[in-house]
Amino acid sequence: MMNSVNLGLQKAERTKNQIVQVLEQLTRDYQNIQPELRLIAVNFPAGEDEFSILEEIELLTVKIRGYASQIQVRDKIDNPQLAIEDLKNLTIFDIPAIADFYFGSDGEYQRMKVYLQKLDYLRLVVIEYLSI
């Protein structure tokens, strides 16, 4: 019979594998969205007091992928409770520039929209891993 420790370890390993898989997908996807990135840069410039949509996405990407990469390499994150809170507060679609872009560009920029969905999924899987 499996005990709860073994089940927890198995769940952690499965969740880590998901993290690694999504990280690899995001790396490939980023290469494929380069043409869209150029169009987005032209069509969604930054306002005077705010970051551009691409800057917002870059900030999110660095932070979320950074946590995921630590798990991939080290199987842990220093101060996981702080990381969980940080990730919970990084709700991608609550950022006005991203929400306006995502919900306001009907049928356009599909690759970037899929990239954002996967990035948000990675955020949730990292939270799940850190909560095990």
Task: Give structural notes.
This protein has helices at residues 4-32, 34-43, 53-74, 80-88, 96-104, 110-131. With 132 residues, the protein is an all-alpha fold. α1 (4-32) runs antiparallel to α3 (53-74), α1 (4-32) packs antiparallel against α6 (110-131) and α3 packs parallel to α6.
Attribute tags:
single chain; 132 residues; mainly alpha; 6 helices; 0% strand
In short:
The protein is mostly helical and 132 residues long. The chain is built from 6 helices and no strands.
Sequence-ordered SSE layout with sheet pairings:
Layout: H1 4-32, H2 34-43, H3 53-74, H4 80-88, H5 96-104, H6 110-131
Helix pairs in contact: 1-3, 1-6, 3-6, 4-6
